[in-house]
Amino acid sequence: MLSVKGLTANVGDKEILKGLDLEIAPGEVHAIMGPNGAGKSTLSHVLSGREGYEVTGGSATFEGRDLLELEPEERAQLGLFLAFQYPVELPGVNNTYFLKAALNSIRKARGEEELDAVSFLRLIKEKLKILHLDDSLLKRAVNAGFSGGEKKRNEIFQMALLEPKLAILDETDSGLDIDALRVVANGVNALRSPERSMIVVTHYQRLLDYIQPDYVHVLAKGRIIRSGGKELALELEEKGYGWIDAEGQAA
Amino acid sequence: MSDAAFTAFAGWLSESGEGSRPDWLESQRLLARERLADLGVPDRKTEAWRYTSLKGLMEQGFGRTGETMAALQPDDLEEVLVPGLDAQRILLVNGRYLPELSGQGDLPAGVRIGGLRELLASEPDRLREHLNAVAETDAQPLFAALNTAGLDDGLVLWVGRGVVLERPIELVHLSVGLDEPRVAQPRHLVVLEDGAQATLIERYVSLGDSIYCTNTVLELSLGRDALLRHDRIQMESANAFHISGLYLTQGADSRYLGVNIGLGASWSRTDLNCRFQGEHAECDLQGLYVAGDGQLMDYHLDVQHTQPNCNSREIFKGILHGHGRAVFDGRVFVAREAQKTDAAMSNRNLLLSESAEVDTKPQLEINADDVKCSHGTTVGQIEPEMLFYLRSRGIGASLARRMLCLGFAEEIIQRLSAEALRDHVSERVGRRLESAPMN
Ligand SMILES: Nc1ncnc2c1ncn2[C@@H]1O[C@H](COP(=O)(O)OP(=O)(O)OP(=O)(O)O)[C@@H](O)[C@H]1O
Ligand SMILES: [Mg+2]
């Protein structure tokens, strides 16, 4: 589904991704862990097409298509979704209007009919329930004045609505209280399916207790330096990243 | 610019002798005429006209809108009405009050609504105290003096002591194209006595896209503890000239909530003047202007804190696209005795093209030491992070830009007094942005 090979990317003169490889098959959940500043968000942004990054080498294909030459909206229309580490506030942009524009843009690009107001509202109410979110959210401006946790829940709510093929969750767990974490994890698990893949970026084992990954990768200094099963996360929790660094040096 | 040019421009003034008026009004008109001669035509060296040229206006060969009215059918109105807006409508066509096409409704006791002409004939004394008193004749700037010199018709809204007028009054200025370009000079007087409350919706619309000029003056007098909500929506024809001067005096504890929306006209100038006459009054001036190719919108605010303990807010936002231009000149004056003044002014602009332009000049002139005053202006583009957020959800770039612009405008639009009006303005702003190329 996603194939990243030797990806290198700069911000300004600084190289952040330094030859990154990642293969994700349909239905798989991959966790990416790694120290602050390693390049995890940079990878998410480069994959979803944010401006300001220069890809200097390597490739990224999504279902056989060259991701890197597509506009951000085209990637989303193909089924890529990024839950932001820092969701953006859009003052004055009504949430319902936003959700409808997003859903219908994606449907239209796929040659499906736009949803009428009634079916749209029904769908939205159903998804709100999954995330334990209140109706009043719909009347508000997108993320404007939302608490940190509400913003994160809103990201997963959007994911539930847009039903992507590949979702990248960038530290969706940070800033969530214990109950919210469970709700969000349940929301994510409800979306797991043999066709849908996920990249879960996190610093904490706790999220992975709820969302059990098939693979765990350690991203450090712009590269995946170690991959393993879910037991790798437990090992990291115990020993920290220094351990791999040291081993890596020795090897 | 020469004064000869002005004389040529205002030649139609001399035709406006018809009708009988009380003596005091005749002498005010004369006084204004003399003032016009003294004032002369400002050029770009005059501070108030530094960024805005009068040349295009002066070069028009205007006639005055006379008695002859284009035949207007009630159906014609449909096009310019706000769907679903519940209000008592007063219709002016080319500056002339048309009672037969205005809405009829039961008014609470103590409320007087009528044409200025009509009330000058029937109740001149009632008007004398306020007309040219809120805007004093010998201090009026050029276009207000011009309006006074030809003072003839408009609306009078009078709300008596303690009366709450629930239903909004909608004042529709409709311009209908005539064979030659004309000037209409409606003159309005709004008086809210102590404790009175009202909502006034003032709209400028046109049928067709002909060239004309509206030069309107509003005098608003708010008594003690009065409340006026005032929505002003300028959607003149794309070729029109629009000049509007608002003169407001506020008694103690009164509140004025004004929202100014500017979408139309090729050249427009709006002057908002507010003066406090008692303590603990509150004046809220908000505005949204959207200017594109061939449009200039010039706003001048002058808020006089001459009393202690008053609040004022001046919040204006602008969206400029294509070759659109805007001017914001906001002045807040705080007199020495106006302690505990709380004033906040902001002007934020969104520039959607490289050829769009805005000149913004907020000024605080503070002479008291115990006050809270602030001002801020920004001129910027759409935030890339916001744009990316929308696009990452599958929304195409042009729709995403439009959504963000509308979001920017929404803060002001939401201040309008009625939902139907908010929807109407949102829809029009959205439509404008749709046709505006964005890069
Ligand atoms: N716009 C930018 N300008 C300059 N440096 C940047 C920019 N964006 C990212 N960087 C740098 O790139 C490096 C990687 O940042 P990134 O946000 O990808 O890290 P991360 O792995 O997501 O870290 P965290 O765990 O703290 O979220 C950091 O050193 C960061 O300072
Ligand atoms: Mg990060």
From TrEMBL, chain A:
Pfam families assigned to the protein according to its UniProt record, in alphabetical order: ABC_tran
UniProt keywords, alphabetically: ATP-binding, Nucleotide-binding
Stored SUPFAM superfamilies: P-loop containing nucleoside triphosphate hydrolases
Keyword flag Magnesium: no
CDD domains, alphabetized: ABC_FeS_Assembly (cd03217)
Gene3D superfamilies: P-loop containing nucleotide triphosphate hydrolases
Family to which the UniProt record says this protein belongs: Belongs to the ABC transporter superfamily. Ycf16 family.
PANTHER family on file: ABC TRANSPORTER I FAMILY MEMBER 6, CHLOROPLASTIC (PTHR43204:SF1)
Full protein name: Iron-sulfur cluster assembly ATPase protein SufC
Source organism of this protein record: Imhoffiella purpurea
Upper lineage: Bacteria, Pseudomonadati, Pseudomonadota, Gammaproteobacteria, Chromatiales
UniProtKB/TrEMBL annotation, chain B:
NCBIfam families with a match to the protein in the record: sufD
Sequence ranges assigned to domain SUF system FeS cluster assembly SufBD core in this UniProt record: 182-408
Protein name: Iron-sulfur cluster assembly protein SufD
SUF system FeS cluster assembly SufBD N-terminal domain residues: 23-170
Family per record: Belongs to the iron-sulfur cluster assembly SufBD family.
GO BP, sorted A to Z: iron-sulfur cluster assembly
InterPro entries assigned to the protein according to its UniProt record, in alphabetical order: Fe-S_cluster_assembly_SufBD, SUF_FeS_clus_asmbl_SufBD_core, SUF_FeS_clus_asmbl_SufBD_sf, SUF_FeS_clus_asmbl_SufD, SufBD_N
Lineage: Bacteria, Pseudomonadati, Pseudomonadota, Gammaproteobacteria, Chromatiales
